[in-house]
Amino acid sequence: MTLQERDELVIWHPFTHQKNRPPVIPIVKGKATLLFDENHQVYIDAISSWWVNLHGHAHPYIAQKLYEQALTLEQVIFAGFTHEPAVALAEKLLTILPSGMSRIFYSDNGSTSTEVAIKMSLQYWWNQQEKYPQSPNRTKILAFKDAYHGDTFGAMSVSDRSVFTLPFHEKLFEVISIDTPNADNIQELQHQIQAEGSNIAAFIYEPLVQGAGGIKMYAPEYMDKLLATAQAAQIICIADEVMTGFGRTGKLFASSYMTHQPDIICLSKGLTGGTMALGVTACKKHIYEAFVNDDKLKTFFHGHSFTANPLACTAALASLDLLIVPACNAQIAWLSAQNFAFASKLARGISNPEKPLPIKNIRVLGTILAFEITNGKDEYLNNIAGVITSLAMQQGVYIRPLGNTVYIMPPYCTTEQELLAIYQCLNTIIEHFRGA
Ligand SMILES: *Cc1c(COP(=O)(O)O)cnc(C)c1O
Q: Counting Cβ atoms within 10 Å, is residue 200 exposed (0-12), middle (13-18) or buried (19+)?
């Protein structure tokens, strides 16, 4: 039997319609930007394997560090014990995160990093009932429409109600759901927050780019105003930087585009450069201090078997070694500039009166570029996604549209030739839908 056939008998794939599923492709090797399949076909991984691989695949530096750590200490219970990689990574993160973060809580993926943030925020108020007599009322969570914060129940609750969450709606807790801010709605949003503020425990948001909800972007100036209003109402602001963190948006963290900084930051995906599963929830001092108390009931009773896994922490340290250097910074700046140039070419193509391109809403932030193909409905279930993936793979490029939303999010080590191949592939896809 082939690997594909064996897979078909035993595997249930994530986010994959299982009936008549297209055959999965056995990948035998990864090297930098490239994925190699068992038939020696090569694909440029233009979405960094679900947004995680910052430095490409099988990076020898990260691999070496992992090997050494695996021979030294691969795992240890993290209650009552500590180890060098966990402490060194926390120290390092606190120096590079937007100002004011003071504690690192580890978990093992993006969904758990947001679950932890939500639980911390709710318990922050619960723990301080004597200090703030009104705090028991602070149980509501504010979130954005089209948000995506993960697939566990708390994370789904604060995410948009969508096709992803449909079977579970009855079991999800209610949130106050608002639009992302812009020039037209900012005042109304501010008024809403002021009116409900004293009942709101926390505000969770993906800063500037909403990922799985459709790579939707919004402007920092209005977000800054919204954060100011939320913080004036003492609402805990949680930046979910699981996707935007570690250079994706052109700055090390998307929060740095704003002057108002979050109280909690969630990290995963690019944290280990895409080699190991790891989640981080970083918080400011006042959040942590609400848990330092004589009353044992005010403990944060949360943890995971693999909390602060030494291999994962080592991979994160190695990834940061590769990230925080001028050469990588230059790569990110170059990718951003190329994206802006390609986007303006596409914009000119749309406004060409004779042969307008069948696309809309071209947008770029840093290394992320996205647009919609105007074919069928603007929704995740639009079947053109599968067609686009096959078209791209025939050209040696891997992308995975969200419905008719096509985007790229390439590794930072992408070469000039590879980036041109990605853009060429996007051009071919757009041409395919002209008049279709
Ligand atoms: C992917 C993602 C998550 C969930 O992370 P997982 O590791 O897939 O559980 C949460 N928030 C954002 C913004 C994400 O992009």
A: buried
Per the structure block, which two tokens stand in for 12?
A: 């249930």
At 285, which CATH number? 3.40.640.10
CB 130 within 8 A of CB 209: no
pLDDT at residue 261 greater than cutoff 80: yes
Please state the pTM of the whole predicted model: 0.97
Asked whether 298 and 127 are in contact (CB, 8 A), the reply is yes
Residue 15 amino acid letter:
F
Ligand 1: residues with CB < 6 A are 109-111, 114, 148-150, 206, 211-212, 240, 242-243, 268-269
Positive or negative, the CA dihedral 344, 350, 356, 357 is positive
Closest ligand 1 atom to residue 241 Cα is 13
Question: Total structural domains in the chain?
Answer: 2
pLDDT for 195-227, tens place per residue? 999 999 999 999 999 999 999 999 999 999 999
Q: Are residues 260 and 369 in the same domain?
A: no
**CATH code of residue 21:** 3.90.1150.10
Q: What is the mean pLDDT of the chain?
A: 96
Question: Which two three-digit tokens encode residue 224?
Answer: 């800054």
Cα 13 to Cα 124: distance, rounded to the nearest angstrom = 37
Where residue 436 falls among pLDDT bands split at 50, 70, 90? low
Residue numbers of the domain that contains 170: 63-323
Distance 183 CA to ligand 1 centre (A): 28
Residue nearest to atom 8 of ligand 1 (CA): 110
Nearest C-alpha to atom 7 of ligand 1 is from which residue?
Answer: 110
Residue bearing the CA closest to ligand 1, atom 15: 243
152 CA closest ligand 1 atom index: 9
